[in-house]
Write a structure and sequence with these properties.
The protein has about 475 residues and is mostly helical. Helix content is about 80%, strand content about 0%. It folds into two domains: about 15-210 and about 270-465, Growth Hormone, Chain: A; about 215-270. It contains 18 helices and no strands.
Length: about 475
């Protein structure tokens, strides 16, 4: 699953946070790729298994989005805390801890006898992913510089795409032949390999001297939790209810309190607000939210549309998504290297706009029509656009902060990406609740919204990033 990094990494171009050379650059990249692949595999596989989980555990249209949201909610809410904890307590320590927690929760998901316990174990998986994701990127950001960083992040993004590519068809085959519970066992060997490599080859980062911003962490977590809960209620009930309005109000109040708390702590804050004085940082944040919000809805809705609306098997639905990950996996290393030479502005402008064109092509999507003419063209163009954006976006974010804050920066950016996907998944409940021709119409309307969001992301990059 790992891809060997460029030979220049072996020639001492990989630098640690303290300025020394990384003793094992290949193994450092391999460990971060294996760890991150846990989250990538799990997300892509679960989407394919949703109809089977619903049939087996008695979940309806209002329940199924929570199979995804129960994982995404703690992941989005705690990513910022996970990155800051790595900066403070040591990134390798938090990475390995997150992997162990994720693996244990995966076993719990496999044995869950009902939806309530499945949701609880999915939430625990999200906590583990919130620890491992930002620290895998934080380790990469502090271990490499210049073109070596671009190549390393491109390789990391390519491996994630490959993992996402393998997940749906293999997971779909497991659902068809063994049952949906088997998909969670996929995480165990990957987790074991990631722990072994990280423990043996990654050097622990220096511990931070400042106390961790626990007040900011819990305010951010509670704010995001309330907002997402309210949006999920809105989508599942097809309209605003008193509880959803209360959730929106509480979430907004908690978000304001978080900003006030971070302002009071200044540079000692978990998320220093001084970062938002930078136009590129603000632009990258908005771009991430828009682009991953558009993408998150597609990855949940398309397999569901094909299985429920087009009578695809889980294996066939998984294979339908394969071109998406293959294109990203093939092109991400090239775009990562290109960004180091020409800067992030043009890749992050053109990539999202091309992605928007791909979403517009999916307005023609019909699960009863030919896959090759109805579905594939849109998926291929979306993948091409995302391949131009994934590695440049990550590289630009990590390059915008000093080495001491790479974990926090990657955690914040990942949190914004997951928040966009989380909100999209919450709103996707309104589409999942439809049936027959209405399901196809609702999906096509959702692709138009996604197209607008993706193009807006490209315009944001053009207006806020320098040449």
């Amino acid at each position: 699953m790992s891809t060997a990094p460029h030979a220049a990494c072996e020639q001492g171009m990989a630098l640690s946070a303290t300025g020394g050379t990384v003793a094992h650059p290949n193994w450092t990249i391999a460990a971060t790729m294996l760890a991150s692949s846990l989250a990538f595999i799990d997300g892509s596989v679960t989407n394919v298994a949703l109809p089977s989980i619903g049939r087996d555990l008695g979940g309806g249209a209002a329940d199924l989005p929570w199979t995804i949201n129960a994982y995404l909610l703690p992941l989005s809410a705690l990513l910022l805390l996970g990155g800051a904890a790595g900066d403070h307590y040591g990134r390798r320590r938090m990475l390995i801890g997150g992997i162990i927690l994720f693996a244990l929760a995966s076993v719990g998901c496999a044995f869950a006898p009902n939806l309530d316990l499945l949701f609880a174990m999915r939430a625990l998986q999200g906590v583990g992913a919130a620890l491992l994701m930002p620290n895998s990127l934080g380790i990469l950001g502090s271990s490499f510089e210049g073109e070596a960083r671009g190549r390393a992040i491109g390789t990391w993004a390519a491996a994630g795409a490959i993992a996402s590519a393998i997940g749906p068809p293999f997971g779909g085959w497991l659902v068809d032949t063994v049952g949906w519970r088997a998909i969670f066992y996929l995480n165990i060997p990957v987790a074991a390999a990631a722990i072994a490599v990280a423990w043996r080859f990654i050097k622990e980062s220096p511990r931070g001297e400042e106390a961790l911003d626990w007040r900011g962490a819990w305010l951010a977590t509670a704010a995001l939790g309330a907002l997402t809960w309210a949006l999920t209620l809105w989508s599942s009930h097809h309209g605003a209810t008193p509880r959803s309005w209360i959730g929106l109000g509480v979430g907004t109040l908690l978000l304001i309190l978080f900003l006030l708390a971070e302002r009071q702590r200044g540079e000692r804050a978990m998320m220093p607000l001084s970062l938002f004085g930078s136009r590129p940082f603000v632009g990258l944040t908005l771009l991430t939210f828009l682009l991953y919000g558009a993408l998150g809805g597609l990855l949940v809705l398309l397999p569901y549309l094909l299985i429920v609306g087009g009578d695809y098997s889980p294996t066939q639905a998984g294979l339908a998504l394969l071109p998406f990950s293959i294109v990203i996996g093939t092109a991400s290393r090239l775009t990562g290297r290109l960004t180091e030479k020409i800067g992030p502005r043009w890749p992050l402008t053109i990539g999202p706009v091309v992605t928007g064109v791909g979403f517009a092509l999916l307005v023609r999507a019909d699960p009863h029509a030919s896959y090759w003419t109805s579905i594939l063209p849109g998926i291929a163009v979306i993948a091409l656009g995302m391949a131009g954006a994934v590695a440049p976006l990550t590289t630009a974010v990590l390059s915008s902060v000093d080495d001491r804050h790479t974990g926090t920066a990657s955690g914040f950016n990942s949190a914004i990406a997951r928040t966009g996907g989380l909100i999209a998944t919450a709103l996707a409940g309104a589409v999942i609740a439809e049936a027959g021709g209405n399901l196809i119409g609702a999906f096509q309307a959702a692709t138009l919204v996604a197209a607008v969001l993706a193009v807006a992301a490209g315009v944001t990059a053009f207006l806020t990033l320098g040449d």
